[in-house]
Design a protein that fits this description.
Helices cover 32% and strands 17% of the residues. The chain is α+β, with helices and mostly antiparallel strands. The strands form six sheets. A ten-stranded mixed β-sheet has the order 5-6-7-14-15-16-17-25-26-28, sandwiched between helices. Strands 9, 10, 18, 19, 20, 21, 22, 23, 24 and 27 form a ten-stranded mixed β-sheet that branches. β14 (441-448) and β15 form a beta hairpin. Mean pLDDT is 93; it is low at 1-33 and 399-406.
Length: 942
């Protein structure tokens, strides 16, 4: 473990044993006198647990990185939560409440006397105590400033290199900072166009929070400054003490011999930059309207305008009546629905759409993977080329931008006290944020004036706990992805009155021919020990308008236009800080209603869940714009006053937002589940793929059965979560219908019948992807899993392509991939990422197969596609593709990658914690499960 500046005193150790005994009742305004503290009581009674693999410690010195590469050793607390997390795969079947801490941390407040590992006192008004088992920082401040300073100092101890990476990703400067690897080029090209800002833009966001959010805004920025001060204090100490992260040496920032070099100071604008990356990853929604328009045009071209639109709408499934819902009591929350008669829709002319160029002036290795290794010192040669494939492996962070699938992750299971054994509500919940080493989040406990919570915060914006527990309540979130991003078609013009072209850089804005604003970022790099990519450079360029960032060019009715992407959270990347401040304040959150009010101050699109000893609750947050009457949010719209958001002010990117009551919310429902599914009746989806079968069904079916039976415990709800985490959605939800079609006549081919029986046996056993015994690395029904993995893409194509035709089938698959199994290397988070079965054609296939079988279907597809609607023809298509799939060897189904050899099924599914620094981790068993997870049951309340 890197040295953590310690001031060990007996009196200090004694003081932290009752961590949190001085806490202020309210958050004072900036400069206000701090009121007398109130005592902190932990109402969870040892019934709160959490986990965040691989481990709390995310910093490693150069010596520790060398040790990891040479001997496989790990710094203390960098991997000590990994085996417990992995152990739930085998351990969940016999799980009891008493055994939960075999697989989770005790999330009680404070540190027991015999469990104190270290005490750090970076200032006289704050103490950081770390426990022996996990090394989590328990931060206690006697002043507000000290508390937040301690949070920043602890963040520096645990995530300094990671925070530095992400502030550069947010600014579009990753290659200049960490090297020109092709993956680094791709990553900054993904993120910067979605949040391109000047330094003045970033500072303006800081000032807006400070000056427009009242006392809470002033306090938030004071807290943020204290947090940054704490980061910088650790940055300075670690540099002088030579225990800073070793990646700074390997990327050429600091000389390992002379210590010459610098870790650049952090500032408040860095927090805005990091917030833009985090919010863009997990809290966005909407966009993709250009691709949606292209698929609509393809449908209209095939079937004609009226019938083509009907077919398209049946695949779009904005408000599918069979979709699993979080609010399932029938309450309606209309939003972004299909208008009876759309106004202002701006469909492109066929063949006219071209994406907006981003990269200019390439030199050297730009756009290539050309290497030019440096002459590394002998001691560093084992680490040479460590980042040749990028500091963040390609595909492991989500796609973003127009048409890209957002990372829809995280799940929650909450049960009312009416159905539990204790009579108190129970929650098992957490975010799926991918798997990295170190994680993007870090665990911490914060106790100070106006703050009392334990949980996780994204590194670099950890002033407050973002998901976790308070004194007598817990909360968490899942990505909601409702539509907060729209596409506008701005009419192009030339200032001299000449005819515009698609390349024009002026546009009609309230009648005037207005210049677009050019935003640029020039990056250059040279080879280092870590990244051998040869010297190179390029310039990124985007055009900003009052209607957002230009993403495409096209013509509409023959006139040149630019399509722009406008999201409500642009220029408001960190405004959600107010909501998080409220969630951490025990004087503010006292019940479900106050929790919902706090969550309503969070601008990004999230589903928020709450549990205390009395009730559970839910609230959907987000800056939902009020659209003009008749505007279809699913398609591009003309950039004219009549079709703008109501009350839109482009200078501050503000508008009218839907009020609290119109956001899906609920208290005291019998149970809640969320796995990024639909929120409520009439709350329209912002993307394809929310139909009759969704991975949320894996939770809903299990939790509803538990509730009906009654006597739910923390262990039984955790078992339900883990069963769903190991289940193949296709095997549980689609295979029964597929087997009905296949067995509508006897399967006379003995070999093929044996394959059908294999699949049926796997289905009957639970359709799980689980090894025979811990460590066997062989699935119990390995051949059936292989066959399904090979069959699904073949059967979907055979079912739909003949009827849709090549053009429309390809257009629909561009909006929604057909599959996202654990073995898939595509999808929003790439291979080895755990999260699976979010995006796919299972809902389409389910409806279509039931239509073929003559079963009742609510919200059917406009046409029946399998076999042209003929059961016998459908059966023949499925049988022929099944026969093909059964013959595909494992080496082709699982072709191998950097982590696995060809044919290694378990390994192909396995979770790999992608190294963001110099420390790597072992692969673990696949689980479709939150990265950070809480299990909570409060027996009492204030």
């Amino acid at each position: 473990m890197p040295p953590r500046t310690r001031t060990l005193r007996a009196a200090t150790v004694a003081a932290v044993l009752a961590l949190g005994t001085s806490l202020l009742a309210t958050a004072p305004g900036a400069g206000a006198a701090e009121p007398a503290p109130l005592a902190v009581t932990d109402h969870c009674g040892n019934q709160c647990a959490d986990i965040l693999p691989p481990g709390e410690n995310g910093n490693a010195t150069l010596v520790e990185i060398l040790g990891n590469k040479a001997f496989g050793t790990h710094p203390a607390h960098s991997d000590d939560q990994l085996d417990r997390y992995n152990g739930l795969v085998a351990g969940h079947t016999g799980l009891t409440d008493q055994k939960l801490t075999d697989f989770f941390n005790d999330a009680s407040f404070g540190v027991a006397a015999d469990q104190v590992e270290s005490v750090t006192k970076p200032r006289e008004d704050v103490t950081i105590t770390r426990d022996k088992k996990s090394g989590v920082p328990h931060i206690k401040g006697t002043t507000r400033y000290g508390t937040e300073f301690g949070a920043g100092f602890a963040a520096g101890q645990d995530r300094l290199w990671l925070m530095d990476l992400f502030r550069h990703i947010g600014r579009g400067q990753l290659t200049s900072f960490a090297g020109g690897a092709l993956a680094n080029q791709g990553l900054e090209q993904q993120f910067w166009p979605q949040a391109p800002y000047t330094e003045a833009d970033l500072q303006a966001q800081v000032e807006r929070i400070r000056t427009t959010e009242g006392a809470r805004g002033e306090q938030a920025m004071a807290d943020a400054q204290a947090y940054v001060d704490g980061i910088n204090a650790y940055r300075d100490k670690s540099k002088k003490g030579r225990y800073f992260p070793g990646e700074y040496v390997l990327t050429g920032k600091i000389d390992s011999i002379t210590n010459i070099g610098e870790i650049q100071p952090f500032g408040l604008t860095d927090l805005i930059s990091i917030a833009s990356v985090v919010g863009g990853q997990f809290g966005g929604g909407g966009g993709g309207e250009v691709q949606a328009a292209l698929s609509l045009l393809a449908a209209q071209q095939k079937y004609g305008v009226e019938e083509g639109t009907r077919v398209w709408e049946s695949f779009r499934q904005r408000n599918d009546p069979e979709a699993v819902l979080t609010v399932h009591d029938g309450t309606s929350f209309p939003y972004a629905g299909k208008p009876d008669k759309a106004r202002g829709t701006a469909l492109p002319d066929a063949g006219s759409v071209t994406p907006e160029p981003l990269i200019y002036d390439r030199t050297g290795s730009a756009g290539t993977d050309k290497k030019a290794p440096v002459d590394a010192p002998d001691a560093l040669k084992p680490l040479q080329g460590m980042y040749d494939d990028g500091v963040i492996p390609e595909g492991s962070l989500p796609g973003s931008g127009d048409g890209a699938q957002k990372k829809g992750m995280s799940n929650a299971l909450l049960v009312s006290g009416k159905a539990t054994a204790s009579g108190n509500p129970i929650a098992v919940m957490g975010p799926q944020t991918g798997y990295f080493a170190p994680q993007l989040m870090m665990l911490q406990e914060l106790q100070g004036p106006g703050i009392s919570a334990r949980g996780v915060s994204f590194a670099g914006v950890g002033m407050y706990i973002q998901m976790g527990r308070g004194q007598d309540y817990a909360w968490s979130a899942t990505s909601a992805a409702q539509d907060i991003t729209d596409t506008y078609a701005v009419e192009l013009c030339e200032p001299d009155g000449s005819a515009p072209t698609k390349n024009s850089t002026h546009y009609r804005n309230d009648g005037a021919c207005t210049a677009m604003e050019k935003l640029e970022r020039t990056n250059s790099w040279k080879p280092t020990v870590a990244d051998s990519t040869a010297k190179g450079s390029y310039r990124m360029q985007v055009w900003r308008t009052d209607y957002g960032i230009v993403t495409h060019r096209a013509t509409v009715d023959g006139k040149p236009v630019a399509y722009t992407s406008l999201r409500t959270t642009y220029r408001h990347e960190a405004d959600s800080i107010i909501g998080f401040q409220l969630l951490n304040d025990p004087a503010y959150v006292t019940d479900a209603a106050s929790f919902q009010q706090a969550a309503s101050h969070i601008d990004y699109a999230f589903n928020w869940f709450y549990a205390d000893s009395r009730t559970t609750a839910y609230y959907n947050s987000g800056m939902n714009p009020v659209r003009a009457a008749g505007v279809d949010a699913a398609l591009p719209v003309k950039a004219e006053k009549a079709y703008e958001w109501k009350g839109y002010d482009p200078a501050a990117n503000t508008t009218d937002y839907t009020p609290f009551a119109e956001h899906p919310h609920s208290s005291g429902q019998d149970y809640y589940i969320s796995w990024n599914n639909r929120q409520a009746k009439d709350y329209s989806t912002a993307a394809f793929g929310f139909g009759a079968v969704h991975r949320g069904d894996l939770l809903d079916d299990r939790v509803s059965a538990l509730v009906e039976e009654g006597g739910v415990t923390r262990a039984s709800l955790t078992r339900a979560m883990e069963e769903a985490a190991l289940t193949d959605l296709r095997g549980e939800q689609l295979l029964p219908e597929l087997l009905k079609v296949l067995r509508s006549q006897p399967v006379t081919d003995p070999a093929l019948n044996a394959v059908v029986q294999q699949l049926d046996s796997w289905r009957a056993a639970g359709a799980q992807r689980k090894e025979t015994s811990p460590g066997s690395h062989t699935y119990t029904h390995a051949d059936a899993v292989r066959i399904m993995d090979a069959w699904w893409p073949k059967l979907v194509e055979a079912e739909f392509r003949p009827g849709l035709g090549d053009g429309l089938y390809d257009a629909f698959t561009a909006s929604l991939a057909t599959d996202e199994s654990p073995a898939a290397s595509h999808g929003p988070s790439g291979a080895h990422s755990g999260s699976a079965f979010q995006y796919g054609w299972w809902g389409f296939a389910d409806k279509d197969l039931r239509q073929v079988l003559g079963q009742s279907v609510k919200g059917p597809l406009a046409k029946t596609y399998c076999g042209g609607g003929d059961l016998s023809a459908c059966r023949s298509a499925l049988l022929s593709t099944l026969k093909e799939a059964a013959a595909v060897p494992a080496a082709e189904v699982y072709p191998g990658d950097d982590s696995c050899k060809a044919g290694e099924q378990w390994c192909t599914d396995a979770i790999v914690h992608r190294p963001l620094g110099g420390i790597s981790q072992k692969s673990i068993h696949w689980q479709n499960r939150p990265t950070y997870q809480q299990v909570v049951e409060f027996p009492s309340h204030r």
